[in-house]
Design a protein that fits this description.
heterodimer; A: mainly beta; six-stranded parallel sheet; globular; B: alpha/beta; eight-stranded mixed sheet; 2 helices
Amino acid sequence: VIGVGARVAPGSLGVELKVEPDAELVIGDDTVLGPGASIEAYERIVVGRGCRIGAHCKLLDNHLHLVHGDRTQRPPSVPLIVEDGAVIEDYAVLLPGARVGSGARISRGAVVSRPVPAFAVVGPQPVHPARTR
Amino acid sequence: MTMRTASRVAAARRRVADRLRLALACWRAHILLADCELGSFVSATGLVRAEARGGRIAIGDRVTFVGGLAPTQLLASVGSSISIGAYTVVNYGTRFESMGAEIVVGRRCLLASGVRVTASSGASVRVGDEVWIAHGAVLEPGVRVGARSVIAAAAVVTCDVPAGSLAIGNPARVLSLELTGAKRARVLLPV
């Protein structure tokens, strides 16, 4: 389900929307997807209204491989929800277990795998010097 | 036609379609990877750009290059090499760059989309067997990853990762995979 006014920002790369059989992907009205963004729904992914999903973002509701034992097996999915007005900056990755509250901001390149409260700003920014060389 | 024969016919049709798809993917791999030493049944379902500019690129048996948004790139400069072990699966947008060093990826590894592996001037990268590298991870030059380890999504690996461990974050911290059964880690990686 893709809402009214949802659109893909112009860019050299397309957008990947992968929905497995019996899975559900909902993209709300006026949500913008950046170039190279990829959403893979194995059970259920809901993106709210007026969200911005940056370039090269990845949204997954399944880890796809088991850590222990047979890596060709798939673990159970955890539905992923991005609430209205959330901003997901470029190169961020949302993994199963993430639930982004409304108006929250996920910084560039952040990896989220747990709930983020509404209007929170999360991520690796601002950077701090790791060491000198 | 009874239900049983109908399902049998459908299964046979699916098997034939799978074979055809594999044959097409193998043919595509042989065209795209003309510069490389290929094992048997190497397949590519998308774009792969391989440039062995005086270097050597060796791909093992039944390696699969999965297609998608961006092409996979394998670049080896003069005197350097890239080798990928048998049964490894490489997703789209992956970039291997070897400049005067070696990149060795083991057997049955799983490489997700957007993984970048660079080796430069003598700093070789070695990845063991059955390693799973998640989306957007980066392996810096000189890094060694032990067998059955997991590199988390968007991790930047700057130091060696022992066998059977989990590398997470930027720069990557190394945790034991045994700990992923714990309550905290279950949120991170359901076991």
